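Field log, afternoon session.

UNIT: design team B
ACTIVITY: writing a sequence onto a fixed backbone
BACKBONE:
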């Protein structure tokens, strides 16, 4: 199988960290999305959304969307990590918090960066006002995340899960791409980030 990726992008980083947690490696195919490698007819024929990461199985079946790829490996690789939860309640809590972090944090951050920077203005309409609104939504979400981490060692509960991978990537993206001083403003996020950063999979 092959994993098509642009290693620096948040979605590809999520898959890479997840695979490291499972102790799995697969053949990688590097694509340059800024140069439009994902816009070729060949790639779009394989990928439902035309984006990276995309996993191509040996039989030609393809999977896109980073969480779907993570779920595939979690189900096909024997492991006791419970990165999507271990029972009905914890699985529901992981799903709940994952959607919260993605929609209120990570995706809002993507919209802020893309619309404010115009990085993909050659292929999409960039609206500065929407970028500013999206950045405001990121800023509004951060206190909620900090409050959660005041109550819990990890975002979805007492154990490390895929939500912590996504949240870690989101916090780093907010700090670097959006220039928000997250760890300087939010002590609980800062404490949690230091703990997560020490995991071998994040090195």
């Amino acid at each position: 199988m092959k994993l098509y990726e642009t290693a620096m992008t948040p979605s590809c980083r999520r898959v890479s960290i997840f695979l490291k947690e499972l102790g799995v490696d697969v053949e990688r195919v590097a694509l340059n999305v800024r140069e439009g490698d994902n816009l070729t007819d060949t790639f779009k024929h394989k990928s439902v959304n035309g984006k990276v990461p995309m996993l191509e199985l040996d039989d030609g079946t393809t999977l896109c969307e980073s969480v779907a790829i993570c779920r595939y490996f979690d189900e096909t690789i024997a492991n006791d990590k419970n990165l999507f939860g271990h029972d009905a309640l914890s699985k529901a809590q992981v799903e709940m918090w994952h959607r919260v972090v993605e929609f209120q944090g990570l995706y809002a951050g993507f919209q802020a960066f893309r619309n404010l920077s115009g990085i993909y203005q050659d292929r999409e309409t960039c609206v500065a006002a929407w970028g500013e609104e999206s950045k405001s939504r990121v800023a509004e979400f951060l206190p909620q995340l900090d409050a959660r981490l005041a109550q819990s060692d990890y975002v979805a509960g007492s154990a490390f899960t895929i939500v912590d991978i996504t949240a870690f990537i989101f916090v780093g993206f907010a700090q670097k791409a959006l220039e928000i001083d997250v760890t300087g403003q939010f002590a609980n996020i800062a404490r949690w980030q230091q703990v997560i950063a020490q995991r071998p999979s994040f090195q």
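LOG NOTE: The chain has two domains: 2-76, 88-202.
NEXT ACTIVITY: expression trials, pending approval
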